[in-house]
Design goal:
Glyoxalase/bleomycin resistance protein/dioxygenase; 300 residues; 6 helices; 2,3-Dihydroxybiphenyl 1,2-Dioxygenase, domain 1; alpha+beta; Glyas_Bleomycin-R_OHBP_Dase; nine-stranded mixed β-sheet; Glyas_Fos-R_dOase_dom; oxidoreductase
Amino acid sequence: MDSAFAEIYIRDRRTSDRDPRMTRTPLVPDAARIGRTALTVADLEATAAFYRDVVGLSVLAETETTATLGVDGTALLVLRRDDDAPPRTDDRAGLFHNAFRVPSRAALGATLERIRDRSELSGASDHYVSEALYLADPEGNGVEVYADRPRAEWPRTEDGKIGIGTVSLDLDDLVSASDGAAAAPPGTTVGHVHLEATSLSASRAFYADTLGLQVQTESPSALFLAAGDYHHHLGVNVWNGRSRPADGRGVAWFEFLVPDEATLTTVRRGLAAADASVTEREAGFEVEDPSGIAVRFRAE
């Protein structure tokens, strides 16, 4: 970051060291959230059926090569068939999982019933801030479906950050809370996206230092970052030693939604000042992160 933007960041950071009341305004504001996520797939029909019948999304639009799924008319997932895209190899960066957040424990219990009936559960955890179910789609892409605990119950660390942990989840208790719904209810969103990166330090420089996401929880091999005071909108890990940029099937892009066009313009200018290559896309723009994963920005 040897740009004018970096100079502003360094100056503001030094100022904040002298006066903790003065801090740099992040490019991605506190009100931002994850919008849609997109996958490149080989078997469009089977993958769309999985997200419809197991995750509980509705098919909002489809062609021979694409399918858009969501809830209550809001698009959350875009699937694109590409017969020429090679399978993702073990050394490629990419998606760890897309995480769909349902608005209640009853909805999460219903999801567990659908998973048991039509798919296979690969994991389940209580993360203190949420309860989560894990599985994979027919193409091997990781999927999490989770429900947040009430925000007042989220644990805090001594420095005020949100504490995320992992303990076992009582599945019998969860399924007893099910409302039996056959589909995800209104209020379902993509709560966060979790990536497998080639470099944790480079990912931190891009997502935290440049975009201004707040690191909520970290370890030597993973970061969990958020816009504002959410537990995390983005997870990044290097657990599996991915050494090459993302390519082929798997994550095509994911997006941050910002509140308005003025904010979108601010983010675009800040990234350009940080020497990021910005590509215009529908109603917004796109940049690549250090692992070659496309990140889009769009106004609500």
